[in-house]
Amino acid sequence: MLEHPYQQPATSLQPDECPGKSLVILDTDIGYDPDDFVALALAARTVPDLAVVTADETLGRRARLARRALDALDRPEVPVITGVDFGGSHRFVMEDHPCRPPAGRDERGDAVTGLIDAVAGVCESTTGPIFWVGMGPMTNLALIVSSLPDLADRLIVTQMGGWLDHYRDTTRATHNLHTDTSSAGLALRAVQNPRLVLSDFTNSPHIDVTAESALLRHLRSETATEWQQLLAANFRAWFARRSGSWMHDPLTLSAALDLAFVSFRPERIRIARDARLYRDPHGRPIDVACAVDYPEFLEWMHETLLR
User: Fold this and answer.
1) C-alpha span between 233 and 220 (Å, rounded)
2) pLDDT tens digits for 111-151?
3) Measured between alpha carbons, how far is 2 from 305 in angstroms, rounded to an integer?
């Protein structure tokens, strides 16, 4: 069994204090639900070897936002790679800001080639395992394992999404899998032993951040830093649409880092054509979330963000 280099007590660490040299890649659709921004900030403050790929890209705006956020978080060395653009402009709620250009597009303007080359480049920086934290649709991951199948053996994938027993719309897969069902089906079949942080456990009032939450009061304070002000703007834009934000992606990040807030169990899962998941004794082995220690997770999240 692979020993996870981030296995540690649930404490807030500075980037140079986190043990291990393995690469962590966040695949994020930042700029919509603010839980992605929260996860990015947590990773920037705890993970020394980090890269970011933008999922469900929209005209490069997610990559520009991620770049600006990382620079404000004093992580200018973290590469930001522009992922595949779905043209989903309605799934971006932030103002666009100019910044130094992210990676992910080659000289010919081929976005897919640029994505694959850029991810291959950052993966060459380590000989250890590569922890892929999926926080959006699985399009980028499917393209990478299809084009670079040798990487599939090195990727340890923790993906937010999927449901088995409870979801708000039982007629379809969860958002991250439903947005690109073919890629979800391909990626879940291509990587070894993926772990799913199911929406059964992330769609929870225990991790719902609202405008009255203590976190928002801090982000609105006079002492808020640049990145905290930017995160507060993301929350304001989101609250114009929804009353709260479930911390799906920060919880998924904590699972990828083996912080022990999320418990998993192996299941045999059948992946339907529409990316819905079903227990099936003849299905594929996938580790799925089975329990969450919400209070301990929230304590870690708040301590890391607000220190």
Assistant:
1) 9
2) 899 999 999 999 998 888 899 999 999 999 999 999 999 99
3) 29
